[in-house]
Design a protein that fits this description.
Layout: H1 21-28, E1 32-36, E2 39-42, H2 44-63, E3 66-68, E4 74-76, H3 77-83, H4 85-89, E5 95-98, E6 104-107, H5 112-120, E7 131-140, E8 155-165, H6 168-188, E9 194-197, E10 207-214, E11 220-225, E12 231-233, E13 253-256, H7 263-270, E14 278-284, E15 289-295, H8 302-309, E16 315-316, H9 319-324, E17 341-345, H10 346-349, E18 354-357, E19 363-368, E20 378-380, E21 398-413, H11 415-420, E22 423-425, E23 431-433, E24 435-442, H12 443-453, E25 455-456, E26 459-460, E27 471-475, H13 480-495, E28 500-503, H14 509-519, E29 523-527, H15 529-533, E30 536-541, E31 547-551, H16 558-561
Parallel strand pairs: 3-7, 15-17, 17-20, 27-28, 27-29
Antiparallel strand pairs: 1-2, 4-6, 5-6, 7-8, 8-24, 9-10, 10-21, 11-12, 11-21, 13-19, 14-15, 14-16, 18-19, 21-24, 22-23, 25-26, 29-30, 30-31
């Protein structure tokens, strides 16, 4: 490709919309352009890199028995109604509409329903199992908060795969195989990731893992143990909670605490530690008010809380909502509450003589004990596990890092097959529910993640396997002889099968070198009057500062591209 003909122009300045390095560089390099918030056009250089990523994914998925298919983006709402996800998601992330005949349809954000419908009508015997189908497909999620360029968008291409099994044991076996395949895909694409335990979320199922690229710009928090292999998304991470010995339960006392509304205020005023207090946090859902009771030194994990109460969404309650239930913000107590779901963290259940609100302004209660003084609808772990806490598995110390999710895998088990009556006939001729797995990789997000960790102050540094072009060829200086030799080398390299971006423009050396670094192809070749004197070419790897003069008749690009 001649640079003079390449569609897309580079930018001198970083666009104000760009938040993180990958977003800035992909815009500056003329690889993507925003159409509207959360939707981007991929220009030729980015599209070439995406195709290489797709090829890596196809090779790895085919290697474990995957068969590529293509399912419609537009789906009948009835499939989503079968699983109950229509009611949960339409009007939120799921975009629904009606066609001219009044039929309810959706723009697919994922294809569990569609593939389950496909397989239940095509697969009827254990002899056809296990089965894995995958596609690379455009999807749409009505994302409320697009951010960071390609990291969080509304329209995106995804490799989504679905496996079908006769039983849980075979699903477990295959899940581990896909786990390794994902590590292979990301490594071949030029990034190394860590797999962490995660929340199945709206996809559902019994187990899930996310593949995280460690990056300061990542919006996900990952908890690591410094002593063992435990790692998890902060949404599901667990910890060993410190044991607090406040002695045997004592009689409740009411204490005046004027203007002391926060845990810190109350603890300082009464001269107690925060772990001796009970924190009341209130959330609202579409149907209910949630009273989350947790020890004062621990924060509520909203993902765990949503899972505990079976809510798809929740938000902090307003003072007005609390007043309707007779609760006083800053002084609330779980004693004698009615019409509210009370969720007690296990830290409260195991700690005696806590200080808690008296449910009237300016007063707290001392020596509150569960379950003597109040009841709970649910007792479970709803706590965050921050840095510095103790690993529940080995006693090591937990640390927190930021990461970008580049892929995920789920054990769906029979969630969808049961809802949609997707069965097969066993060896005994009996209908059995299919066990399913689901496996996703966002291509645009992966592209951005590759750039996020493969760049320097001058621009992108493409890993060779996914670089838009292998070679960036240019000529500098004046004279027909220089240009003609560059043209000749361009033709020779293309004839040998190399992918070459040839900067044939009449620009200054500074402009050409600067742009070559910005675009980031693995190898730069420069023809100049100086190189012609020795019948050579200047060779420079993008990852190195050193330049070498190599005789043209001795040039072996495989030595530099391997």
């Amino acid at each position: 490709m001649r640079r003079s003909q390449l569609f897309g122009r580079t930018l001198r300045e970083i666009p104000s919309e760009a938040e993180i390095p990958s977003h800035q560089l992909l815009l500056q390099a003329g690889m993507i352009r925003r159409l509207v918030v959360g939707m981007y056009s991929y220009l030729p250089l980015a599209q070439r890199a995406l195709r290489k990523i797709e090829n890596i994914i196809r090779e790895e998925m085919d290697a474990i028995g995957g068969q590529e298919i293509d399912m419609p983006l537009v789906q009948p709402a009835g499939l989503w109604q079968e699983t109950g996800r229509w009611e949960l998601l339409v009007g939120k992330e799921l975009a629904g509409f009606e066609d001219r005949f009044g039929r309810k349809l959706v723009l697919a954000m994922t294809h569990e329903e569609a593939v389950t419908d496909l397989v239940r009508n095509q697969t009827n015997s254990y002899r056809q199992l296990p089965l894995m189908l995958y596609q690379i497909k455009l999807k749409f999620r009505d994302e409320p908060r697009p951010r960071a360029g390609l990291i969080r968008v509304r329209e995106f291409a995804m490799k989504d795969a679905y496996s079908f099994h006769a039983d849980a044991a075979d699903l477990d076996r295959y899940y581990a195989q896909v786990h390794q395949t994902y590590l292979n895909i990301f490594h071949r694409s030029g990034i190394d990731v860590v797999a962490v335990e995660s929340d199945p979320g709206i996809i559902g199922g019994t187990e899930a893992h996310e593949f995280m690229l460690i990056a300061d710009s990542g919006e996900d928090k990952i908890i690591f143990c410094n002593n063992c292999d435990y790692r998890a998304n902060a949404e599901v991470a667990v910890m060993q909670k410190s044991q607090v010995d406040n002695g045997a339960p004592k009689a409740i006392e009411e204490l005046e605490t004027p203007s002391q509304r926060t845990i810190d205020d109350v603890a300082n005023y009464l001269g107690v530690e925060k772990e001796q207090t009970l924190k009341a946090v209130f959330y609202s859902t579409d149907e209910n008010l949630i009273f989350a009771a947790i020890r004062g030194d621990i924060e509520v994990n909203e993902t765990k809380l949503k899972k505990a109460v079976g809510a798809t969404d929740l938000w902090f309650s307003t003072d007005e909502e609390l007043q309707r239930y007779g609760l006083v913000a800053g002084y609330a107590s779980p004693i004698d509450v009615k019409g509210i779901t009370v969720v007690v963290d296990d830290s409260v259940a195991s700690t005696t003589n806590l200080v808690a609100g008296a449910n009237k302004p300016g007063y707290h209660l001392k020596n509150m004990n569960f379950p003597r003084d109040f009841k709970a609808d649910i007792v479970t772990d709803i706590s965050m596990a921050p840095s510095g806490m103790t690993c529940i598995h080995c006693g090591g110390t937990l640390t927190e890092k930021h990461g970008i999710e580049v892929g995920n895998i789920f054990k769906l088990s029979t969630k969808y097959s049961e809802a949609m009556n997707a069965t097969y006939l066993s060896q005994k001729g009996r209908p059995q529910l299919l066990f399913m797995g689901c496996y996703g990789i966002g291509l645009g997000r992966l592209l951005a993640s590759i750039v996020e960790v493969n760049h320097d102050k001058d621009g992108i540094i493409w890993p060779p396997a996914v670089a838009p072009y292998q070679v960036h060829l240019m000529h500098i200086g004046k004279g027909d002889e220089v240009r003609q030799r560059a043209e000749s080398l361009y033709a020779e390299l293309r004839a040998q099968g190399y992918e070459v971006l040839y900067d044939d423009r009449q620009e200054s050396p500074g402009v050409k070198f600067k742009e070559a670094d910005l675009l980031g192809m693995p190898l730069r070749l420069t023809i100049s009057q100086r190189t012609l004197e020795t019948d050579s070419v200047e060779v420079k790897r993008r990852t190195e500062g050193e330049k070498n003069l190599v005789k043209l008749d001795e040039l072996d690009l495989q030595l530099y591209l391997s």
